Amino acid sequence: MIVTACGTKGPVRGTEAEIAALAASIQRLSPDVDPAEATRAARLSYTATHQLALAYEISDTALIHNAKVNAGQRPRGLCYHWAEDIQARLDSAGFQTLETARAIANADNPILIDHSTTIIVPKGAPMQAGVVIDPWRYGGRLFWAPVPQDTRYDWRPREVVLREKGRIKYVQRTEGSLAPPPVD
Description:
It is built from five helices and eight strands; from the N terminus they run E-H-H-H-H-E-E-E-E-E-H-E-E.
């Protein structure tokens, strides 16, 4: 697990060592993961985090930034914004051996707020076999960990959570087609 250190002059970029560590973690997910794709996904995760932190005008902790977004003082930066934007950038890379999944934690806890993230997984693997990519948690500093090692959150598939809450009836598939929800 690596969290990029926060600079005093705003968001910082990931170091080559941090990118290499994330790439190695992605590569370890499956022997079918292309090492070059793991490296590109890691670099893209760090680059996108830095670019989005600048675009979102991140200057505070995650919860303070949330308050600023909700008050109209910042353009974006809620956890689901990070998850959407990171996922879009990763998905646009055209990976052949990797894909993304979305997850939500705390959805059934009335005391805590929902938290959304993107997960990088080997193509066709379940979300639990992936690596959490979470730039929101530490206010624009990338946190990542294999899903089972991220003990701070109990991640569940986004589609399952939204269906349980009655917020979706159909799941939007990556290829753009609408498909009915799986039969339980």
